[in-house]
């Protein structure tokens, strides 16, 4: 029988199917970004912990330099998968795959780097923030400071109004959509610039709930019927070069319950609230947009004539 946490984990995505992890291996942007960031963050001889190891690939990246890697995975299917995959690769013996709950596990010794990729767009569904906050509290109680370096180091979240096409061969269906960040979608029209609504720095205490209210100046006439959520993961800050190694999640587009017709120059106010690790419908239910300024409704001001 599953306990309450395991039931919630299955629903929210902690038990991601094996084939989904295989798809992640084929995501070149994700793989290259994490490999580069781990190569930068892990020093020779370091001790590394990965929370939520999946296939073990990120732990394997760390094993190229690390003396020891602890790879924690809660899903027994993935534990078997990771052990099988690591056995096929050089340095795989430096990774210890541990069947344990990331909410409860602590390594037997202090570590230098913690890798955790339980990341969904807008930090929904998966437990990235809650897992890391729990880990920091328990780690400090056992080992004291300083905390390890976390990878990702930070997350930047933004939102953007869209006019989104919901016609599927004549079938109208306002559904949640996930889109590649580097692809062009003719049915997606950006109606204003994106606005950042939250920045998470994992080296600092992190909030578990987000509430935002902000305004957008509309850039073109049409109908705003969706909001795009953008999640940029700052995997590592390369201080020597003043740059970052980043990875963008797929864009997530949520339909608005009540579309808003707009003209260029109008001001749209958007609000929402949700909890980190919560469901997508919980964010959808709180998402609201309304006009607070109509440019076309303003009277024309006559300019004085010049002689």
Automatic annotation (TrEMBL):
CDD domains: AdoMet_MTases. One of its GO terms (molecular function) is protein-arginine N-methyltransferase activity. InterPro entries: Arg_MeTrfase (IPR025799), Methyltransf_25 (IPR041698), SAM-dependent_MTases_sf (IPR029063). One of its GO terms (biological process) is methylation. Keywords: Methyltransferase, Ribonucleoprotein, Ribosomal protein, Transferase. Signal peptide: none annotated. It comes from the Bacteria. It holds the Pfam family Methyltransf_25. GO terms for cellular component: ribosome. The keyword Repeat does not apply. Residues 48-137 form the Methyltransferase domain. This is Ribosomal protein L11 methyltransferase. It comes from Duganella phyllosphaerae.
